[in-house]
Amino acid sequence: MKTIGVILYQGAGHLHMDALGKLGFNPTPIYAETNLTQLDGLILPGGESSVQYAYCLNNGLDEKIRKYASLKKPILGTCAGAILLSKYSSEKVKGFGLIDVNIIRNFYGRQIKSATVRTDYGNEAIFIRAPKFINVNLSDVEVIDSYAKQPIFIKQNNIYCTTFHPELGRLDQNNIISKIYSGFYN
Ligand SMILES: NC(=O)CC[C@H](N)C(=O)O
Question: Which UniProt keywords apply (predicted)?
Fold first, then answer.
């Protein structure tokens, strides 16, 4: 059984833990002091990216994530997690630059603008104060799914990012989260 680490300091990590458990993975909580090297995969969940970023920096978790990424094992960032993995740059959140994309936080506005949509590839995507990918380097970054022709799920080498919350959807076998986890960690 594959052991997948989920960063749990803040945000929706417990929902990934639940979904992973129900879909036959061994989810394990990750904090700054946890050793990452034994993991088969790692998830950076949605939440508040500025809080998560400060936690990572203050506790050396950013360096651990960079080292883990260099092992070429799969890392998934959802929403705030995607912001952390990208090259986003502001004073508060600089981003780890592990995927060749920029991102705009809270692009679609406030919580009231959050929505569930059908993606261009027929998947269900739940957006919560979602960011938007921009400047996607299409020669190196693959677009796995899009909405209104805008990328919402991208991949570069072992780094996967969604601007939506796949862990919030239904857990049937055809749902995006099972496709992501099974494709991701096979
Ligand atoms: N659902 C989410 O993860 C929202 C991300 C959040 N707006 C941020 O910038 O951190």
Answer: Glutamine amidotransferase, Hydrolase, Lyase
